Each structure stands twice: as structure tokens, then as C-alpha cells.
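hey m, so remember when u said the C-alpha cells were messed up on ur end? i reran from scratch. heres the input so u can diff it against urs
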Amino acid sequence: MPPFFEALWSNPLLLTALFVGLAASVVSGIIGSYVVVKRITFIGGSISHSVLGGIGFCIWLEKARGVAWADPLFGALVAAIISALIIGWIHLNHRQREDSAIAAIWSIGMAVGILFISQTPGFNVELTNFLIGNILWVSKTDLSILVALDLGVLLFVLSLHQRFLAICFDEEQALLQGVRVHFLYLLLLILIAVSIVLLIQVVGIVLVMTMLTIPAAIANLFTTSLSRMMIFAILLSSLLCLSGHVAAYYLDWPTGATIALISGMIYVLSLTFFRKRKKKALDKFAQSPMRKERDLNPRYP
């Protein structure tokens, strides 16, 4: 048996970390597909960085004020949902200035977090884990919370997938059909916020958008069906997590950064392959009799 799998069964921390990665892959593939299709990656990036404000505030309460219940994960979740609702309100009411407002929320969230962290005594390892990720640091209790949040996201998506599909591709048409577009848009942003908190446990704030968008972006290169895109993205995200774990074990690298690096490299290779395949298909069509007949006859349908 390879050394990695021997360590996997003998080390509970490594096994828990693998389960966390697989649990995060489910929400990464599903919610990431919505993010890629609706082209709101910038909004996801703003939410992911604004959670630093909630994390810094809870760490300050816990370390400087002795508030035992101030869990940084809870602070991240609250900050992410508040940011998502503010961004959603801006999108619905001030669309012309949306980009600037989103950038402001991004900056404010990080600034608030840094201010609270600066007032917290001592060096905080927990904060470093949130920033750059440390999947081995996740406990079984954290895993249970992550699985519960995972199931909640899946429940919402299964019950509202067709409506989310409508607002992702044509909000105006969905509005004419009587769909509650504004409510669904805010709900989708909240699900993105919850997903970001889930993924922070795996790769950290700095790299969270990698895992949220890259598997879905790769899947989008090979299929036009959103349902198939989600399934492909889940499988791909799980494979990337497993590959990252194996590579990090043998190379002694940080697991989150290794997963992000492998994901980015696979995306670049997939994009290159997709472009070459598309160019070959266009060249083949250019040499076909149908193309020649169309060029010679202007009335060719």
C-alpha cells in the first residue's frame, strides 16, 4: 500500500481533512456553477474577503475580552451573509455603481478585520489558518457543522434549481413569468456566502475563489447543460482535493495552496486543449463542402 494511504488510515487528522475536502467539493461544484454561469465571480470575491471582518471581531472578543462563545467560524458566517445581502441590495437598486460599491465592501471588510486583529494580543495561529487555510486543523465538530451546512445548501438547491436557472440566464424573462427574482437573487447570494465559509476551512480566505470557480469553469468548457456541469464540477473538485492531499503529503506543502495550484494548472491546460479543439473544428468546417457552397451562394440558409 502507498505511504499516503497508510498514513490516511493511521492518522485521524488526515482522514478528517480528506472528508472535509470531499464535503466542500459538493458545495463547490454546485454553487460554483451558479457563480460561473451568472458571471458574479467578483461578487464572490468581495464576500470571501469581507468575512475577515467577522473573523477578526470574534477573535478579538475571544482573546481580548474573554468571550468564550465568539467562534471565528460563526463570525465569518454572519459577516458573509451581511455582505451578501448588502451587495444584493446594491445590485437591485444601484446597478450602475455596483462595481465600485462591491469593491468598497471588499475593502471595508478587510479593514475592519485588520483593525480588530491589531488590537488582539499575541500571535494568532487560528487567524493564519483562516487566511491561508489549514485543512488538518479542522476538527470532527467542524466537520459535522460543515456537513450540516452542506446538506442545507443541497436542500435549497434541489427545491429551487429551476428558478435559480431562470434568474441565472434571463432575469427579465423570469420577472415577466412571475418569478420572485429579487428574493431568489438574494437567496442565491446567501448560499454563495455559506459556501465560501465552507471552503475557507479547506483553502483559506486568500485562495477560496480558486476552489469555488475553477472546477465549475473547467466543467463549463465541456458541457452546456447546467445540471451536467454541476455533476462534472463536483467530481472534478473531489479529484482535485484528493490530488492536492496526495501531492502535499509527499512534497510537505500546505494542503490548501497545493489544491489551489493544481486546480489552476488543470484549468490552464483545459483552456489550451479547448481552444485547440475549437480551432480544429473551425478549420474542418472551413474546408467542408457546406462552407464552400455557403460562400458561393449568398442566399444559402
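this time it looks ok to me. The first helix runs from residue 3 to 10. if urs says something different then somethings off w ur setup not the seq
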